[in-house]
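Project standup — Tuesday

K.O.: blocked on the structure for the chain from last sprint. Re-posting the sequence here as requested.
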Amino acid sequence: MLLNPNSDTAASFDRPLQLLHACHGKLMHQCGTLRNLVDHLNQHGSDGQAQQAAQAVLRYFTTAALLHHQDEEEDLFPALRATVPAGDTHMGALLADLEAAHIVLETQWQALQPLLQQLAEGTGTELPAEQVEAFVMGYFAHIAVEEKELLPLAEYLLKPDQLAEMGQRMAARRT
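H.V.: unblocked you, prediction finished:
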């Protein structure tokens, strides 16, 4: 089963849905780091730990998170659209909502990125809690929908050859 947290099967490009699931865990971890950074700044200011945390969050969201969204938008979503029976409006609406959420998250990230860059360089001191919380909660809500609806549907609908092709494309994106 795809979403079994006790599964011994490691995420890999041979199991692209499991890889997307694993990435969700990493996204949530980085969102937690971002939240903790706000608290750290309030208590300790922009010290070396704050700079390191900002660097880690920047690195993750400008590489792995970006690739994750591309995996979904360029591979998973089109593969699902190709398998949906005519007249099924639920899948179309679900994918449209998820794509719209990607746009919102990207917009929020573009507003946070320069602040994190300044913190990472030791020149910034602020990270608005409301802005961070909106971004984090947006990601948590988005991931919840993907985990509850999208990935189980993908596991049910996509055939092994579609998954193999998806995994190859995801791997190629990272080379």
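K.O.: great, moving the ticket to review. The chain has one domain: 16-173. The longest helix spans residues 89-121.
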